[in-house]
Amino acid sequence: MSVDETAAVREPDPFRRTRWSPRVRWRLLPWWARVVLVYLAARAVTTAFVLELAGRQGPNAWTGAYPGYFEFANLWDARWYAFIASSGYPDELPRTDDGHVAENQWAFLPVYPGVVRVLTAVGVPWDVASVLIALIAGLGAALVFHRLMSRFLDPDQAMFAVVLFCVAPVAPIMQFGYAESLGFLWLAVALLLLVDRRYGWLVPVVVIWAFTRPGALAFALTLGLHWIVRWVSREREPFPVRERVAAASVAVVAGVAGLAWPAIAWAVTGEMGAYTETELAWRSSYIGYVELVPLTPWFQGGDWWLGQPMGTIAPIALVVAFGLVLVSPWVRRLGIDLRLWLASYALYLFAVFFPQSSTFRILAPMFPLAGALAVPRSPWWRGGLVAVSLALQFGWLVIAWRIDGYDWTPP
After folding, report:
1. Number of folded domains in the chain?
2. Could you tell me if residue 19 is inside a domain?
3. In angstroms, rounded to a whole number, what is the distance separating the alpha carbons of residues 157 and 154?
């Protein structure tokens, strides 16, 4: 055999090497198919984590020992949503023995249990229907998030941002009986519409979102800041009167929608502070029953968790650190509108949220930050991020989701 013939035998088929190699076949897939595969793979890994923990779960207030997947996926607040679907909201607030408002359904918004109830009406068990809706909404959020990231990042960066979204430490919530997935979907759609300046379509999205998960008030602030930025920069980017009116109108709608649920709770119960006092009931086990004073909860939490002086220093340090994050080069790649959302939502949480074991789940609407982490292309960086995220995900499930005796760490 000649040298040329030997080389021809040893030389791999260039057609197979280029067209049929896994990397090329992956790139030949349409973007939506890649997102679906990433999402399903991430959910499969999470399912393995969940089944491992369910197999070690002891008897508790909601399940017997070793519950199946769907039972285990409907612990904690998922039970409140099931209660809302079956019994609605109380017209009289429940009270503790000392007369304070007790935990009740008014803390939870109605869209998610309403959607799940539609499935149960055709015979799907609640535990299954709640997970199916969460899974479908989570996939929708991943698809829209990819489109959003594609406005600012290169294709491989946008796809890796989706990977980080799907394997995030609190990503298991997208396959549990919680409303977060629907909230992520509406938020991703709202941000995409804002970035694309499609203000009219924002109205129905923001209204539905306001009755799914809290955040509409923060988005109203985002829209207000967006209006100011566009006005100041109108010489560089035209801001015609029609868009000025539309953007301002949507900001007003978002503000009204964000206040609508507390107003409805007031109208039904006859108590003006029905919603606020209900929310405060959840922090009473930490600091007792106190009035809500905006911008103080993180200092109250700092004092409870860390004592003084660290209880005062830590919140201030967090604010400074987050401000530096917002002006970092990677985050600046996301554009001004997404940074306005991140700042607005952070301010909203700083104003009203008490830091406790649910903090990581409550921070999840900051998922656009995944786009900043996707900017570096180093395989070591990306592989490390995925590994760390999955490790933190398992840790979150162990600490916050699994019930271990007297558990005071709800997710």
Report:
1. 1
2. no
3. 5
Structural domain for 97, as ranges: 28-401
How far from the centroid of its chain's Cα atoms is residue 176's Cα?
13
In degrees, rounded to 5, the angle at the alpha carbon of residue 369 between the alpha carbons of residues 173 and 397 is 25
- Give me 291's structure tokens: 């009035």
- Residues 281-292: tens digit of each pLDDT: 999 989 999 999
Q: Quick one: 168 exposed, middle or buried, by C-beta within 10 A (0-12, 13-18, 19+)?
A: buried
Please state, in angstroms and as integers, the Cα–Cα distance from residue 216 to each residue in 92, 131, 232, 235, 326, following that order.
Answer: 26, 24, 24, 30, 21
Is residue 20, in this structure, part of any structural domain at all? no
Q: How many CA atoms lie within 13 A of 208 on its CB side?
A: 17
pLDDT in tens, 177-231: 999 999 999 999 999 999 999 999 999 999 999 999 999 999 999 999 999 999 9
Please state the pTM of the whole predicted model.
0.94
Nearest to 364, CA basis, from 221, 262, 213, 232: 213
The answer to whether residue 3 is domain-embedded is no
